[in-house]
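PT: before anyone asks, these are the final sequences, not the draft ones from last week. 626 residues across everything. Please model them as a single complex and drop the result in this thread when it's through.
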Amino acid sequence: MTEQVIRRKERLDRGIKVRSDTVYAVSSWKEIFFLLTPRAGLIIVLLIAPLVVPSLYWQRVICIMGVYALLAIGFDFLAHFVGLVSLGGALFIGVGGYLSGCLNHYVGLPPVLTICIATVGGALICTLILLPSLPLKGVYFAIITFAFPIMIERIIVAANVLGGTDGIPNLDVLSNIWLNQYVILAVVLLSLFGLRRLVNEDVGVVFRGVKDNDQAIRASGLSVTYYKAIAVFLAAMMGCFGGAYLTHLYGWVGTSLFSLDFSVFPLVATVVGGPGTLAGPLIGCMILVPISEMLRAFGALRIVIYSLIMVVFILFWSEGLINWARRKYEQFEHWVKV
Amino acid sequence: MEILIYGLINSMLLVLMAVGFALAYSVSRVPNFMHGALYVLTGYLAWVFLNRLGLGYVPSVLLSIAIVTLMGWIVYRVAVIRVRGMPVSEIIVTFAISMAVLEFVRWLGLRGATYVLPVFYTKTVILAGVPIDFQRIAAVIVGAAIVLVLWIFTHYTKIGLGLRGIAQNERAALLLGIDSDRAATLALSLGSALAAVAAVTIIPMGNINVAAGYDVLVFAIAVCVCGGLGSWTGTVLAAFIIGFAQTAVVYLVAPHLSIVVALAAIILILIFRPSGLFGRQKELEDRV
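LR: through. Structure below.
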């Protein structure tokens, strides 16, 4: 009779992880490299990407990937650090896009200026639109943010303002594809590392307090709505920049800026990449946007495929890619006999 | 007069669309974002059975309702049960399945005006100078019947009372031996069946299209949120308010705005009275 051997996987943190999670007491070159490799790796991959992709078409895909990444990072920030599940990516994109398009078309400002104004102004408008609904939580905030872009789109079509169904064509185009790619990648990296720094500052603690226990925040004499508004403003700024950028990438503004894609894709990217990490959504976008381009031949079936990917991930692998990779990187794993 | 009569009809259509969503949500707390997709799927299945497979009208309608009900059951048992209690994941799962269904149906070629279901009975009645076709009257009758049957079901049968128990206080209901998962499965299947019935009743007035899936979802959410969850009176009343407002706006302002009315209603209600007009069971702290 053979004895049954029961084994379990033992996980041990690597030394540097044990010492500190955020403040690194680095003592050797080896540890510096250990810490730098993932971060520098991501930056280098992103910076090299425009040089190695085969054609102009794929270079444009990189630009679009950047826009989705901005939305996804914003979504992750709002959902997992502030507790606002926003399905309003399309709202941010639409407001930013239309604002810069209108400034360009009706006032005649150059794209550099319109993008800057649309980023800040659009974010202000979005924050003001969402301000009354900020006290809501969970499902209800999601429903409201989901409803706004649909409503604005229908109003634009029904009232036939701002170009109606046809949109506003013939805007100024940013034609230098190299500049386009590096600008969006720089903004993505800047917002990624900026937000990561922010959530580890004092204000980040308040944000997480808003998510986990808003009564405690109120008891500390801080206004919950004020902090939510700041968070929404930050996320909206990223989204509005994306919208304004898209407008001048295509030289066209239309109601498709309010389409469902901009609300749903960040969600998929976050779920696949790893929720609550900020870098995860970016990784998710880097994987999913090219896949979705390759699947373009399938037409509507594409959305079916990535909906199913999303369901599978959230049901069976809800930690996402980056949390998994991080565990593998930061811990020793081995089997031990029980 | 037209506004009055068509407002009434429109309101009953909203009741039909919303009642399944309301039932599923109030019992299982799962926001069934598949609602619209199931609605469209029923229409498509009925069309396929009727025109491709050549089944009769009654069998194909019954069969499609049965399939959609089964689908609600399977989705709960396979998917939703794993993420129960995590609202974000629940939304993502049901919404993703809904998109998968809708876009799959679109891919199968559901476009244009060729996809129509036959009406129950072709005839137009003139009521107080306003012509109404029989299908709309039938919809009003079906809507009223469903509300009545559901009310009796949830107030006078053992299973129905169990469902209400779960909706009001899940823990207490568990203590009394009501299986929460079984109740939620039942609620979701029943909700899906109601979406299917709504589809069979409403679709003959127009054609089957994919966009209707999203519209029906928005209408259902609008009615439920405005009415306050868990309150039948609230749901019906909200349906009437939104229904009449929509009809008035469509007649007096512009025909494209009916969905804007629903969305505006959601936004206004959530901002000014977050627990809905008659929300009793839903504690306020959950929302604000």
